[in-house]
Amino acid sequence: MDELISVMKALSDPNRIRIVKMLQHKTMCVCEIQATLRIAQPTVSAHLKILEAAGIVSHRKDGLWIDYYLRDGSNSPYLACLLGNLRFWLQDDPEIADFAAMLRNLDVKLMADESACSLEEVDGIIKKGHYDMINVRLSKCGGFRKSFRIIDYLRAEGIPFQIACQLGESGLLSAAGRILSLLNSDALYHDGSYDKFLLKENITDENVSFGPGGEAGPLGGCGLGVKVDNKKLEKLNGGHNKGREYAISSKEITNI
Description:
By secondary structure, the chain is of the alpha/beta class. The chain has helices spanning about 1-10, 15-25, 30-35, 40-55, 75-85, 95-105, 120-130, 140, 145-155, 170-185, 195-200, 230-235, 250-255; strands at about 30, 55-60, 65-70, 110, 135, 160-165, 190. It contains 13 helices and seven strands.
């Protein structure tokens, strides 16, 4: 009960909600937050202290600077639920529209992510004009075909996009994401193939991690270029798929 009350109290102030909305897009120092909200520096620090005490934000030192960032909610089920929903809330609020304009004055690029899962949602976001670019992920956009439709729409509208990954995704999804990136080299940013850097165990025989300098080229073989290790899959899913064989063929990838 105390944990829930702490999170709810921390999010009960309009300026603290604005800070959370800002940190959804980038890490920021106190002076950046102060310039955007146009409130006193001690007041900003007090708000950040409350948010940090509730586990909503954290900070890291970068030389003489202290950068604040939004936590992922893994420390609290209540926080995870609220932060997940807050990405969708307030998009039609006039204050959020004004807030987006203030961020642009600071040369902050706003990228829509969890609120942009379908072509219809992306179309609505672009028409409102609050965001500068869209984050495209296979896992949230519904696979290759739907992701391509979103990307084609963004190209036609002249909107930059990023091709990204699902945090902690397996080698299978990493391989699929790499193909999407290679087929859309005009993406502003490419993010993925973190496998060995994040996962203690994986389900693919092949190592799908990026190489030196973040480079990641085509994988060998047909289809996605990876093969699922059924023993690893059985171990990681508690034996629910025991005896089943998994392989991704070139025919299947063509039909996705």
